[in-house]
Write a structure and sequence with these properties.
The chain is α+β, with helices and mostly antiparallel strands. The chain is built from one helix and three strands.
């Protein structure tokens, strides 16, 4: 399972962060670890392998 987050910084710029794991919950946790302080996830996308 791969979870890709579109992350928006406080200045409005957007980046993508991804996490890969066996379950959705684990992949989401891996992706969320990469979100910089002051930013927020605005889109969550999943891909199943």
């Amino acid at each position: 399972m791969e979870v890709t987050l579109t992350v928006e910084a406080s200045d409005g710029t957007r980046n993508k962060m991804s996490g890969i794991a066996d379950t959705y919950e684990q992949a989401l946790a891996e992706a969320r670890k990469q979100i910089p302080e002051g930013s927020r996830a605005v889109v969550i996308r999943t891909d199943h392998y």
